[in-house]
Amino acid sequence: MRFFFIQPSAAVAGSLLLLFMGIGPACAASCESLKDMKVSGGTVTAAEHIQKGAVPAGGRGAITPPLPQYCRVTAALSSAPGSKIIVEVWLPDPSEWNGKFMGTGNGAFAGTIAVGDLRTGIGLSYATANTDMGTAGGYAGGTGKPEMIKDWGWRSTHAMTLAGKEITQAYYARPIAKSYFSGCSTGGHQALMEAQRYPEDYDGILAGAAGNNRIALHLAFLYYLRVAQDNPGYWMSREQGAMVRKAVLSRCAGQGSGLPTDDFVANPGTCDFKPESLECKSGQDAQTCLTHPQLTMLKKIYAGVQNLSNGHTIYPGNPFGTEASASARLGVQGGGAGRGTSDLLNWAKGAAYNPATFDFNKDVEELYKMWGADINALSPDLSAFRKRGGKLITYHGWQDTTVSPFDSINYYDRLSNARSFVRLFMVPGMDHCQNGPGLDSFGTRAVEGQLADPDHNIVSALDRWVTTGVAPEQVIAAKWSGGFGGAGRGGGRGFSGGRGGSGSATARGGVSVETSAPPPPRVLLATRPICAYPKVAQYKGSGDNAKAENFKCIAAPKARFTPPAPEYLVNSGAFRN
Q1: Residue of 6, 164, 205, 391 with fewest CB within 10 Å of its CB?
Q2: Which residues, at least 6 apart from 311, have a Cβ–Cβ distance to it below 8 Å?
Q3: What are the C-alpha distances in Å from 428 to residues 101, 193, 485?
Q4: What sign does the CA torsion over 329, 403, 244, 292 have?
Q5: Other C-beta atoms within 10 Å of 100: how many?
Q6: What is the helix (H) or strand (E) element at residue 233, kind and residue range?
Q7: Strand 127-131's sheet: what is its strand order?
């Protein structure tokens, strides 16, 4: 049952009361007057005016441009008894607002506000909202707390959207022209959950590296670790993973797309690398080859999670070129299967459950039936969203080893009439949501130097598609030195760069502000188009290969991979008794 304690009509009445009282939410100086406003599901608990240039610390995307002045609003909501959802809404000065609303996603199990995503939205002049998804205290708090799990799975994002729109309209005293959602990872999960459950919430949705195939995704975290730990000889070192990746690049870098000098495979879905070529020969150095058991492990990484009792695929595997990161997921040799990979199992089976006892042939069905309806977002039926004119852009980095890139392709392939309202962009060399050796800056994070026009910014491209009907067939991405901050990885063949840092923070006037010295100036290393799937970017053969104008999007074969079996593509499963 879906309900909120405060009905929308009460929130609207509260907004009108503010106007009649002469508090004037159309003026940014009245920001503080929003405090105690009643909204759907709860109440505004704080509202403060933030001066231009003050940047709350934390969140993804540490290297950001100065922000304009804005009104920072916090609300506490509840979707059911025992539920507590925190929402923040950042409202640009009325003179700078673009008239539109943006809901943004979180990461992992949330628990805090994703400040980096708020920065991105307000930097483009959107009234921008984010939620902690009701999981303050960490995902472990979800064990034995079904309301928290439901909030994280689907309720908190809708609650944020209702309250965020009401706060926005009260502040500016005029209707919202268009509404968009943007998120990656868990944020991508939230995005697709909105498109499937609440098609009226947003006019356009941007979903990156979506963790919407949630149960199977977390099974993958455990599966690769368990296979390596439970089978003596299967485990590979990170150095061996890097060796395999080098061999893959030698074979497939520049093959049909990209450049031979790239430190990534531009189109790994069509790479024809043969793992058997690396099997050890008598007397060969073990760090330069793979034993037969290790070769078996590598093939399992490529093949994905399987139900060994019937051979059915539960979750797709990792693409060629991801071996160095994938081997890191095998844990420390002899280290066993730790709880860090088994969070959903503890939700289902209790805090004391030992993941080493999980049976991939028998226990999967229990997880789907227990939590699938609340935390999976697998439905390909987006007809209601499409019929109302909604547009969906999905994107995924080809070098992602957290969420399989093939899973995004598989979801796109399952949609009906996809070309009429959906575009998928596979980003060569990008890791999970950002970073990696590829070109990873195209508007999903607020960073210095990021252009705001629709040809270079995927958020603006979505807005143009919704408002003018011009669908994006390519977006020009950039590679900057320094990555996206502390987790950034520049470098590799073809590009060079270092690590940035987020710096320390201190409190000023009720808002945390970054105070460390600014990072060194970022250098633009290259630009290149990323193309609507299945097209790929090919070098034209002349001109500076670090400039986008010397590449073109060309037709390419679809990616080759084994998709999940049908029973694992239904939220609660479709298992035979």
Answers
A1: 6
A2: none
A3: 30, 26, 20
A4: positive
A5: 22
A6: none
A7: 38-39, 42-50, 70-77, 85-92, 127-131, 101-104, 179-184, 204-208, 391-397, 422-427
- Measure the CA–CA gap between 208 and 349, rounded to whole angstroms: 30
CA distances 262 to 254, 426, 498, Å, are: 7, 16, 17
Under-50 pLDDT residues of the chain: 1-29, 58-62, 339-341, 485-516, 577
Report, in this order, helix, strand and coil percent for the chain, each rounded to 5. Answer: 35, 20, 50
Instruction: State residue 60's pLDDT score.
Output: 41
- In this structure, how many other beta carbons lie within 10 angstroms of the beta carbon of residue 166? 25
Instruction: Give the integer Cα–Cα distance in Å for 73 and 71.
Output: 6
Class of residue 555 by CB neighbours under 10 A (exposed 0-12, middle 13-18, buried 19+) = exposed
Nearest 10 degrees: Cα torsion 343, 347, 353, 359:
-80
Is the distance from CB of 432 to CB of 209 less than 8 angstroms?
Answer: yes
What pLDDT was estimated at residue 352?
A: 75
pLDDT at 15: 42
Following DSSP, what letter does each residue of 77-118 receive, concatenated? Answer: E-SSTT--EEEEEEEE-TTT--S-EEEE---TT--S--HHHH
**What is the sign of the dihedral through the CA atoms of 253, 257, 259 and 262?**
negative
- Cβ distance 338 to 284 under 8 Å? no
CB 89 within 8 A of CB 154: no
Instruction: Determine the Cα–Cα distance for residues 577 and 565; give it in Å rounded to an integer.
Output: 16
Alpha carbon distance 296, 283 (integer Å):
20
pLDDT score at 8? 41
Question: Which residue type sits at 133?
Answer: M
Helix (H/G/I), strand (E/B), else coil: 313 = strand
- Is residue 39 within 8 A of residue 89, CB to CB? The reply is no
